[in-house]
Fold:
Amino acid sequence: MAADAAVNFNFLHKTCKVVVLLCVLHIFVTLFFYMRSSDSSIAFVQNQQQNPRFFASNNRSSPSEQTAAVNGERASESRGDEERRAGGEEGQQSQAQAVVKESENKQQEPERKLGKCPETSPLLVGPLRVEFTHPSPTLELVKKENPNLSSGGRFKPPDCLALQKVALIIPFRKREEHLKYWLYYLHPILQRQQLDYGVYVINQDGDYTFNRAKLLNIGYTEALKDYDYECFVFSDVDLIPMDDRNTYKCFSQPRHLSVSMDKFGFRLPYNQYFGGVSSMSKEQFLKINGFPNNYWGWGGEDDDIYNRLASKGMSISRASGEIGKCRMIRHQRDQKNDDNPQRFDRIAHTRDTMHKDGINSLTYRVVKTERLELFTQITVDVGTPP
Structure:
């Protein structure tokens, strides 16, 4: 019985040892799998905190390598931002340079060449209604209706090159109301005629006897100081054309423009008449030595000019009586412009005096020059009669 008890005890003792060993083994196995699961959880969390692209590519690098990779990507992104900013700045600089270059190219490009204006302007309307209402048009109204004028009463056609450069010369003294009418009617006419023109009002200073022809010589001289005019229209301030087809320009022969005045019943008073409004080219004007300077008072200078033209073999050209109609502003004879008692004697000796009395003997003094919006006014001292 004692032997059986010892055998059973030994068997039980061995069984307990095996059980204990299994328990220990189970504990170790449990701990092993627990630790492995913990490491996997840590790695999963780290991968979640990293860029999703690394997690998606099943990156198996160590945490330090992953950190370095993240830092490298950030550095790369920073460099990319800098490059983009630099690229943006370079783009802005390039754009600015392109604008400057385009501006320079435009400046270097030659202006668009205009063709010559036609011989007969397509803007003409023909007969005009000319009325001298009271009160006279204001200068403000004339300015408003002629916005394309430049300083000094200058104008150029915007769409073509004018065939002639024309200076309009007006002898003047104390005729402001008449000048308003002249500017009101003539500026639109001259622009429709597509002339490159300027208006010069030559105002005689002082109260001495009026000298129309000398003022015309002065206007010619002063206008050429401004511009290379080719044609000169000499116009009294009180004469208005009634048809814009009567072009205020120069022709192959000296031109009489005030052909048929209402003052004379719209007829030419005599065939040699060259008064009122006329035009001459620079060559024609110089050929006759300009106008005489010694006609003081009213009358005579027009006939003297006709004699000068005839002596040089030139003839007077005119438009038809219908196209050449014009109206005169009625007024009293100006003071200090009485009839010239010497005019008939001087006319008789034109051929003897024309080469020494004219543009080559002209003397005067400019008192004041005013560049106004509608005209250039030049006030001059013409001296006194001998």
